[in-house]
Amino acid sequence: MVAYERVRKAIGREIRRQRIAAKLTQQELAARIHTSGAYVGRVERGVTNLTAQEFVRIAVAIGTDPVQLLGRVTEGRGEERAQKRGVKNRRS
Predict the structure, then answer these.
(1) How far apart are CA 13 and CA 21, in angstroms?
(2) Is position 90 within any domain?
(3) Could you give the count of Cα atoms lying within 13 Å of 92 in the half-sphere of its Cβ?
(4) Tell me, what's the pLDDT at 88?
(5) pTM summary value
(6) Range 61-69 contact pairs with CB under 8 angstroms and sequence separation of 24 or more
(7) DSSP3 helix / strand / coil % (the chain, rounded to 5)
(8) Which residue among 14, 22, 59, 64 is buried most deeply as judged by most CB within 10 Å?
(9) 14-58 tens-digit pLDDT
(10) Domain count, the chain
């Protein structure tokens, strides 16, 4: 898998996680950002490319800071790689 595909999927997973934590359906998020639920689904699956503007709109709509959301994506990737190597989370 090409690096940008992994990044899209990681961003999509984190957006989904944050949307669910905010107790929003895909349709509710879509309404907040003036798009379709199908588009939100494609974003969450990492199928579609996001512009920076779309990323910010989604982050704000789910009630999180875009920079923090991106930070959670990169933190999650580090933890995911460590888990694959069998390294325990040092923050625990």
Answers:
(1) 12
(2) no
(3) 4
(4) 47
(5) 0.78
(6) 61/29, 61/32, 61/33, 62/15, 62/18, 62/19, 62/22, 62/24, 62/29, 63/22, 64/18, 64/22, 69/14, 69/15, 69/18
(7) 70, 0, 30
(8) 14
(9) 999 999 999 999 999 999 999 999 999 999 999 999 999 999 999
(10) 1
Q: What is the pLDDT of residues 3-13, one digit of tens each?
A: 889 989 999 99
CATH number of the CATH domain containing 24: 1.10.260.40
Looking at per-residue pLDDT, the higher value among 84 and 53 belongs to 53
Of 28 and 81, more confident: 28
**R_g of the chain, CA atoms, integer Å:** 14
| Residue 24 main-chain phi, psi, to 5 deg | -110, 140
Beta-carbon contacts of 37 under 8 Å, excluding residues fewer than 6 positions away, are: 25, 26, 27, 30
